[in-house]
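ingest -> validate -> predict -> emit
validate: passed (alphabet ok, no gaps, 179 aa)
predict: started
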Amino acid sequence: MQSGHSQKSSRTVLVLGGARSGKSRFAEANAIGSGLERHYIATGRAFDDEMRARIAKHRQDRVGDGWTTHEEPLDLVGSIAAADAADRVLLVDCLTLWVTNLMMESRDVDAAGDSLADMLASIKGRLIFVSNEVGLGIVPENRMAREFRDHAGRLHQKIAARADEVYFIAAGLPLKMKG
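emit:
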């Protein structure tokens, strides 16, 4: 958070980008710069060895760096509500993994997204969402992948509409889209 910005003016931030775009690094720097107590809400689940290794690396990267980590693959609204406080910044990484988890559990993704978007008005602290922009490529060849792309796109629109700031990250460079 840049000095001179009030907490109100940038209470909710959405950071979008492609794979390895630098979006998580940007979001983490934004959280660290806020000067608030930092909480990391991780939505990833380890379905295979590669994902287990990624999660382990993320955990290790945050050890001793002033982060309190919460791992919540499904009840993101509950996890945010439980961790929210006026003196905290919550970094949620990432919304697209959350969408995947909801789909794998046959949950109502659109209703969950509505609940998440609806709670943003009541957030006491600062909330930063990270998510993968997946709608810029070719149309996926299978139904589940198309449904995933569509769910993610609708969720991004809901969150972006209510966020105070929205960034798109490419090649490590931020483009401020809102705020």
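DSSP finds six helices and seven strands in the chain.
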